[in-house]
TrEMBL record:
InterPro entries, sorted: DgcN-like, DgcN-like_C, DgcN-like_N, P-loop_NTPase
D-glutamate N-acetyltransferase-like C-terminal domain residues: 135-328
Recorded superkingdom: Bacteria
Annotated D-glutamate N-acetyltransferase-like N-terminal domain residues: 56-129
Entry-linked Gene3D superfamilies: NAD(P)-binding Rossmann-like Domain, P-loop containing nucleotide triphosphate hydrolases
Protein name: DUF1611 domain-containing protein
UniProt xrefs under Pfam families: DUF1611 (PF07755), DUF1611_N (PF17396)
Source organism of this protein record: Lysobacter auxotrophicus
Amino acid sequence: MKSEVALPQPYLLFLGDTTEPGYAKTAFGLRDWAGERCVGEYVIDGATVSTGLAPLTPEEAAARGAKALVIGVANSGGFIPPTWWPALVRAMDAGLDIVSGMHARLREIDVLRDAAQRLGRRLIDVREPPSNIPIATGKRRSGKRLLTLGTDCALGKKYTALALTRAFHSRGVDATFRATGQTGILIAGGGIPMDAVVADFAAGAAEMLSPDAAQDHWDVIEGQGSLFHPAYAGVSLALLHGSQPDVIVVCHEPGRERVLGHPGYALPSIQDTIDLALRLGSRTNPDIRCAGVSLNTARLDDAAAQRVIAHESQRLGLPVADPVRGGETFDALVDACLS
């Protein structure tokens, strides 16, 4: 497994012409968890999404010390549209390498490959799985594992896993954040991009990602997709089976009613997600349990968020918290994970 991703830093975050905040999760994740490595953001005509970082041209970013432009978008299908190509070439002209976590490979785009060769710039794709992934065995491994699952994509699985890892560390618990997507890999410096793994090897990749460990060590594994997602349920199930979690935390955004990018599908309930995850997860870990629920309340004010958190905790009979807001409710969720 690739344990290190040597990337030129700091970054200029590229948002393209994105209008859907959920597709800019790579940029938001880097802003929130690696902000010291981000000098600003760069958008093109049509964009309505912003990270709130300083708007910079590639030339201005290079003058401030930026070494690379990171594509901060994770759109459906992971493609790099032609409308972005001139901006990426401009970044290379300004002296920046290009870093991408998209499914599309930078070097497969002639315009970008030719510009990189002409200018001596690097094109770095982080969404490349290792070549030696085994078929899953289903064999139980030592150590403890926690997996975040969601009712949908782009609603807090990565943030929850990172926040829980940080909380475990603050309590003196030996824990490792295990990245499974491009943003997590950019933050952690290593991991396996699960959605780039051939389907037959996906559960094996999850086993590889969280190997045998000391009995008191926790691997906190970033979830992907949703078990109910019409397109991405396969990677979610492979991750669940392969990671063999002892504990799951289900993530949800209050108020979201339709699947992101698939408005013809209603979101599953939190309870249905818990029930299905426990049923399927028990195949490789009969002792699996749900410690609680993580809510993304970013769209709510503090009072409304606290009301929703309290209501859902009472309704579900489980600890419920927003890890970004923290507080006593999050402490209770951490307690439940470690109990």
